[in-house]
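I'll show one example:
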Amino acid sequence: MGSFSDYLENKLLDHTFKNTAFTQPTNLYVALYTATPSDAGGGTECTGGAYARAVCNGWDAAASGALDNTSAITFAQATAAWGSVTSFGIHDASAAGNLIVWGSLTANKSIGTGDTAQFAAGELDITLD
């Protein structure tokens, strides 16, 4: 389960219906959450223990309303526990910024000291229908 954020939905509507042009972000950053965000944002993003959002600008061309990452998305090795990761978000900034899209993971993953979180190439699927 997941969705485009309210922010992105409004930007796409304004852009499509010629109100205001939408400028794509310079970079996209994948975040990990221990409490799932919603279209309005929120959620609880991982913190501490060397956690930082991972930049991901490699996405294949959309086909049949879907696309996915073309290379692995690798986070820094955890120097302390990040908790049980339940979901991800894609943002337009390395900190704060706007939530673009979010989704739940198919299974929670506990990230402990020494672990390296990663989405393999093709593993993070974004769909629009």
Remarks:
- The chain has one domain: 2-16+25-127.
